[in-house]
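ASSEMBLY PREDICTION REQUEST
Request ID: AP-0331
Submitted by: J.K., bench scientist
Number of chains: two
Total residues: 682
Priority: normal
Notes: Please return the full assembly, not individual chains.
Input sequences:
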Amino acid sequence: MNMVRFLIRRIITGILVLWLVATGTFFLFFAAVPVQVVARNLAGRAATPGVLAAVTKYYGLDRPLFAQYLTFLHKLVKGNLGQSFLTQQAVTTIIKQDLPVTVSVVVGGVLLWLIAGLAVGILSATRARSLFDRFATLGVLAGVSAPTFVVGELLIIFVFVQLNQHGISFIQTGYAPITQGIGPWLGTMILPWITLAIVQAAVYTRLSRGSLLDTLGEDYIRTARSKGLSERRVLYRHAVRSAMTPVVSQLGIDVGALLGGVLVVEQVFGLHGLGYQIVQAIPSGDQPVVIGLVLLAAAFVVAANIIVDASYALLDPRVRIS
Amino acid sequence: MSVTELQFQAASVENAPAIAIEGRSQWQLTWRRLRSDKVAVASVIVIFLMIAFALAAPLIAQLTGHPVDQAYTLRGEDTSGLPVGPGVHGFILGTDQIGRDLLVRIAYGARISLFVGLLTTSLAVIFGVSLGLVAGYFGGIVDAILARFFDAALAFPFIILALALASVFHPNLGIVIGVITFFSWAGISRIVRGQTLSLKEKEYVEAARSLGAGPGRIMFIDILPNLLGPVLVLSTLYIPAAVTFEATLSFLGIGIPEPAPSWGNILSEAQNFYNTSWWYVVFPALALLITTLAFNLLGDGIRDAIDPRTERLFAGSKTSQRKRRKAQGKNNGGLDLDQAILVGQEGDLTDESPLSAGEG
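STATUS: Completed
Returned structure:
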């Protein structure tokens, strides 16, 4: 019952947040970017003033800003994100087309960085101050220090180019849909995943190491040991489970910040996903696409945060949802 | 800690010669600890070398005889117009796609990248600390409004805003500095605000207030010096973040515009040549990675030096800690070594974590 009430409240505040993001993005892009700039982008550099005026009128850009905003909200409630200024495609169609690419990158990347980050973190915590621990910490800092695109470029040079020069063509850039077979899909995805993992796993290694070291000093761990449980059982059943709480909240934050990382990864590896669409849409003033994609990202963030908060209770029995 | 051990410690202090005791300030202690941290010292040396490299850029250009923007279309490119490799035709690190000397460009790039990193961090620290102090000290409605601003600035997808700004204005150094500062100050504010909330309840603040000190004096003369530690650590960690940030902006075509070289825009140009010219990517990437890694390691070192209760991974050797634990084990009366280590570790953690949590 508690859980249901919690979820309902969180979903309502989530919708409020989405409305704020929609409003903020709308005014940022429609008010900050002058109409003349947008119209010129749409009509082309050589357009005459007459053409410019016609373009402005066609897209309703001549109406008062607030009237445009109301129309936008009205359409939004009905699930209509509008049409691209440039290609006339519905924004929902663009999302449907390119979502699989981005989802492939994100899901694989998140899984890989979680597994790598936690494994190294747990090993470091159980072997605190060992040689492994020191090298892991150094590696972690190196990952944190590197910009995403540099990691991507180095991987392309030292893995993709090298392998292909030696006749191994498993790894490719670009995107192969999973419907064409799991092999080609994996070949295009593995480097983007590793890139995200190198940059992000670092944070999780640090976090899980510190948190696990703290947890291992708790009284209930001593109790579990004194009951005669095996060290493995103490570690994985009792310690790791509750040490995961900060890791989970960090994951909620990172999924939000992932938009930036995915955008760069898609750019480096030539993947035409949603991040690529945003990079194309913003300079050309294709505002419906920009707003639609930002809203989609925000919706993911809100959903991720609700799931994260709900999962605290599952991980740590001491946490009660309130 | 056992009673016998306490007695032992008390006795050792009593028996120590009186002249050996000498008052040391917090900063002196921090400085001593930092100096004994080999990794931190090495990081400082690397950072100074990198700054020297940046300052010496004109000298390097003179020594090699290759001005920074000079394109050597004949010597600097091979027959198919591609960059030449390291060591070819007197280009120590090779050339870029229009035949400019890569070493000279990386040196000049160091100037811009380090300048952007240091300037944006200073600006972010000034704004962040001031607003954080105000929010934490005044509390109430001021705090509520400022805190929402911190949250909004932290939550906004920065790349989108940067792209939007770049579509209206032409990218330039000013916008890059503005964008990076705008997305850095809020994190500092949040931490300063939290610290101020607890510091303003301390007795010495109460004393200052009873002496008639105004809010400005209390915030900047009484509270601020006590915040210098965390702010110093944060700044050291924000500098590499800003360098990375500038590189990412340049990569997306919204950073420092050509022909002025920055590590970011060199790397961004280089991505089209990964197939043929590895040096074009690898050397600027190395310069960037070495710099950011050094700042990050230094930041960790300063944090450990300020708060010695945190675990010091690199400083202090493993064997000396083993020995300490072994001695503890013997005092406790005949536990075997592994158990002694285990007990020691648990004791350390449970004793320390509430303290550090209480201060944070």
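REVIEWER COMMENTS: Residues 311-360 of chain B have pLDDT under 50 and may be disordered.
SIGN-OFF: pending second reviewer
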